[in-house]
Amino acid sequence: MGGQYKITGDKYPRMRPVRRRGRVAFAAVACVTVLGVLGWGTLQLIDVFTGGDKASAAGAAGCVPTARASASPAAAVLPKPGQVTVNVLNATTRSGLAQKTADELKKRGFRVGEVSNAPKEYDKKVTGTGMLLGPAASLKGALPVLGTQLPGAEHRADAAREGAAVDLIIGNGFKGLANRADADTALAKLTAPLSTPAAEKKSC
């Protein structure tokens, strides 16, 4: 080309428009943002699919121990009627009560010892249905068992008393032993094993 449009020097005019740096920077930020969102979403998906294992672990750690029932050993110390020796003593003015009561107790499986009138310290002084008297150990053994046959009778222990036999002292309010069926039911409830917490078992 010649004339006034002659090109001089070693630099030539650019034929393409100049790129704007602002657009490049914006595109870079957008890419970083998209990648960040994708990464966060991936982590959330991983948590969703692995959350069941974490929940199971948390549930196992939070298991609540529950008590398992077992028989109470306390019921085992109560004697059976055949292991209880009963002295039947009459503290009333009515004759024949001691022997009649002793015969009925024998039919119900109790051992019968002495059958007689009550000693002076109790004669005509027992106002209720009767009194059950025995050594200190009998308060948690023989007396409750014998008491099923005469509800309402007073239970009393004599610390100085020796031996295992117990006394049934007939009082002025005595009208007879409890109905046998009722006495058997009371005895069954008394000697039945009780359910008590024994061992803890984790329940999830």
Keywords summarizing the entry:
alpha/beta, two-stranded antiparallel sheet, 7 strands
Q: Can you walk through the features of this model?
A:
It holds the Pfam family LytR_C. This protein has 204 residues and is α/β, with parallel strands linked by helices. It contains four helices and seven strands; from the N terminus they run H-E-E-H-E-E-H-E-E-H-E. The chain has a five-stranded mixed sheet. A two-stranded antiparallel sheet has the order 1-7. Helix 3 links the parallel strand 4 and strand 5. The radius of gyration is 48 Å and the shape is rod-shaped. The two termini are 94 Å apart. About 6% of the residues have low confidence.
Strand content: 15-25%
The quaternary structure here is single chain
Helix/sheet category? alpha/beta
Low-pLDDT residue spans? 54-58, 69-76
The description of the largest β-sheet is: 5 strands, mixed
Number of helices: 4
Rg is 48 Å
- Label the overall shape: rod-shaped
Write a brief structural summary.
The protein contains 4 helices and 7 strands. The protein has 204 residues and is α/β, with parallel strands linked by helices.
Fold blueprint:
Blueprint lengths: L20 H41 L2 E8 L13 E6 L6 H11 L3 E7 L12 E5 L7 H6 L6 E4 L8 E5 L9 H12 L3 E9 L1
